[in-house]
Amino acid sequence: MPASHSHSGILLAAMVRVTMVIAMVMMVMVMVSGEKKHDYGDALRKSILFFQGQRSGKLPANQRMKWRGDSGMRDGARHGVDLTGGYYDAGDNVKFGFPMAFTTTLLSWGVIDFGRGMGDQLNEAVQAVKWSTDYLLKTTSVPDVVYVQVGDAFKDHGCWERPEDMDTDRTVYKVDKDHPGSDVAGESAAALAAASIVFRYRNPKYSRLLLRRAVEVFRFADRYRGAYSNSLRAAVCPFYCDFDGYQDELLWGAAWLHKATRRRVYREYLLRNQKVFGADDSINEFGWDNKHAGINVLLSKEVLMGKIDVLQSFRRNADDFICSLIPGASRNQLENVQYSPGGLLYKTGGSNMQHVTSLSFLVLAYSNYLSHARKTVSCDGFSNSAASPSLLRRLAKRQVDYILGDNPMRMSYMVGYGSKYPKRIHHRGSSLPSIGTHPRHIGCKGGSVYYLSSNPNPNLLVGAVVGGPNRTDAFPDSRSYFQESEPTTYINAPLVGLLAYFKSHPVV
């Protein structure tokens, strides 16, 4: 090809890219200008209240989600261990340890970074963390053992019944020296370490217990390496199978232990294993399965604050992650995240809102770290290559506002927020009559009539955020479309921190 044609082609490509960026920016500006003001405080209160609807075990006297009752009261008894408590992860009645631990880590991170903005909801958020950590302490009470699941998922998913009526097998699954699970153990260590920071001044004795256990569990995770989905494949797959390997959870656990202890040993562990464990892989992924982007953002704070310069590579990875989320920007040939026509961040797979809230949380956290350090992110092909903290905050806020109702469906995807929200969510307890109104037992198949009904759920699971609309912004509001209509704890957990920030900073 002649040189002149090459130069003109490059120029044309550059003009197209600039045009696309301008179009995206204009679209966002138009959408923002037409937004109504949201009550982020009300949304925050409801997002935390949701966790009460997911509680397992003996409910306390101050339980506010009144249609729920005690459940799983003999969990672990047949195995000689007390595994009562904790959270049901979604619309079923199984306690999955992997997503529960991730939920705990993100709730804790939200309190650590954004607790000041929670106001009168701070104590509620702390109690939501403690409901989970009390359970995680039980699952890690035996040395070199982590109990990772309660309930036979296949049998549970064959039923549609209230947690208070469960009559399926409450089988207990564990990882140990001979059946390793570095992923779920590493995430449990991260959760315990992060929560130890939450309770450091609120309850020092409890905090020290959490941190000691985190150290022990991480040591077990690192010493006996392997994925729990190999050790327990028949039980945990395809539900919460570890698709991305256990290495990221080891780095994640070390990162939180470093933050909680300030010990050099964890920093050296991170540096020694960063490339071995593939910390540069999939860096625009973050959720219960893949922690890479979270590791990079968490450790970048140390670099941006000028404390630990040897972690610069994590900061570069965090910048790459941020650039992959900005429409029109590119960096190091990373695959950019896609957006729906209505502006919702979209990644393939089920329950898209888990990506929306988790990635938005990282964007907001990083924007604050950048802001305090008076730094920007350099992104090739975008706005003179500089993305400011305020731009990142607007990007995160746009996703939160979409969830709360600024979307083509003009509905909130949080149950109980606004005048229009999902009424037929894929959730057993919400869709069946409560034991208060229907005290008689409803068996495994007895709930099918309620599942198949087109009527709205009788019990409002206030604050639940569902899986959300598809890539064209359409939402069916039907129990049978579980990928769109099922809420999860790990959708709500990062949203708590986001809402706390925008409650205190409604204009960004």
> Which fold name is given in CATH as the topology?
Glycosyltransferase
What is the residue-mean pLDDT, rounded to a whole number?
90
Unreliable sequence segments:
1-34
CATH structural class: Mainly Alpha
H-E order: HHEHHEHEHHHHHHHHEEHEEHHHHH
Taken from the alpha-carbon principal axes, the silhouette is globular
Element layout with pairings:
Layout: H1 3-33, H2 40-53, E1 95-96, H3 97-114, H4 122-139, E2 146-150, H5 153-157, E3 172-175, H6 182-198, H7 204-223, H8 228-231, H9 233-236, H10 247-261, H11 264-273, H12 292-304, H13 312-325, E4 338-339, E5 345-346, H14 353-373, E6 377-378, E7 386-387, H15 389-404, H16 428-431, H17 448-452, H18 482-485, H19 489-504
Antiparallel strand pairs: 1-2, 2-3, 4-5, 6-7
Helix pairs in contact: 2-19, 3-4, 3-6, 3-19, 4-6, 6-7, 6-10, 7-10, 10-11, 10-12, 12-13, 12-14, 14-15, 14-19
Question: Which key phrases capture this entry?
Answer:
508 residues, mainly alpha, Glycosyltransferase, three-stranded antiparallel beta sheet, two-stranded antiparallel sheet, 7 strands, 49% helix, 4% strand, globular, disordered N terminus, cellulase activity, hydrolase, Glyco_hydro_9_His_AS
Commentary on this structure:
One of its GO terms (molecular function) is cellulase activity. It comes from Zostera marina (Eelgrass). The chain crosses the membrane at residues 12-32. By secondary structure, the protein is mainly alpha-helical. It has a single domain (36-504), classed as Glycosyltransferase (Alpha/alpha barrel), CATH 1.50.10.10. It has helices at 3-33, 40-53, 97-114, 122-139, 153-157, 182-198, 204-223, 228-231, 233-236, 247-261, 264-273, 292-304, 312-325, 353-373, 389-404, 428-431, 448-452, 482-485, 489-504, and strands spanning 95-96, 146-150, 172-175, 338-339, 345-346, 377-378, 386-387. The strands form 3 sheets. Strands 1-2-3 form a 3-stranded antiparallel sheet. Strands 4-5 form a two-stranded antiparallel ribbon. The longest helix is centred in the N-terminal third of the chain and has 31 residues, at 3-33. The relative contact order is 0.13.
